[in-house]
Amino acid sequence: MANYYQPEIETASREQILAWQNERLVKQVQHVWDNVPYYRAKMEEKGLTPADIQSVDDLHKLPFLTKADLRDAYPYGLCAMPLSECVRIQSTSGTTGRRVVAFYTQHDLDLWEDCCARAIVAAGGTKEDVVQVAYGYGLFTGGPGLNGGSHRVGCLTLPMSSGNTERQLQFMTDLEATILCCTPSYAQYLAESIEEAGLRDKIKLKAGIFGAEAWSEEMRQDIENRLGIKAYDIYGLTETSGPGVSYECCEQTGMHINEDHFIAEIINPETGEVLPEGEKGELVFTSITKEAFPLLRYRTRDICVLSRKKCSCGRTHVKMSKPMGRSDDMLIIKGVNVFPSQIETVLLEQGYPPNYQIIVDRVNHSDTLEVLVEMASDKFSDSLAEIAEQEKQLVGALKAMLGIYAKVRIVSPKSITRSEGKAVRVIDKRKI
Ligand code: DLL
Question: In CA terms, which of 145, 154, 176, 408 is 20 to 30 Å from 287?
Answer without folding.
Answer: 154
